[in-house]
Amino acid sequence: MSVASKTTPAFGTGVPSSTQAPISTSESKTAAALSPSSTAGINIRPPMKYAVPDSQSWHAPPLEWLQGTWSVTHSTLPMWRKAKNVRITYKIIPPSSPDELACLDDEVCSEPTARTLLPQPKSIKGIDTPDGAGGWNWRGKGWLKIATSQWEVLGWGEKGDEKWAVTYFAASMFTPAGLDIYSSKKEGISADLVKEIIAALQGSESRDMAALVTASMKEVKIEY
């Protein structure tokens, strides 16, 4: 979750999907850009604003799978450079009628590691409303009710007893577009697994996304 008023993603395949020409057999690179990248079983798609996921190779995680507390272990977002123990908790909000979709209660908790110009809240709460396969519109609670943002799941899975996810956040007036890596383990993600995830991100046909990961993906401090 990032507080936002601008919701246009800052990277993708380089061409919005609405303007792309039909894919022919001679356009293998373009076709690949519309599908998730896969490395050692790690399946990651580009942001859906720029590419239509291959429905046979990628699908959104079930809400029951996403529900729970996640540790943010790696991120390209500057907001986590001066924070530690970043945790995001999702709780399912059942629909009030059969015509509605379930939403998510969203709480981000963190601890500052350095002084900042403006005080940082230890907890940011909001509600996530579904917006496409794996996509969400976030709106803050309380004094943050006027704030909104967009985020989506790009990849998710399990390895042994560890669940992982990669999320993308659209650019906002406060932060640039960026990526987070989540782990279900409080102590953080395993070294081998994060290497596989980062390799899949760097191998993405979305050139801008791959470059962002190479230049800006950093470990988020976990210290209990």
From TrEMBL:
Residues 1-38 are annotated as: Disordered. This is Uncharacterized protein.
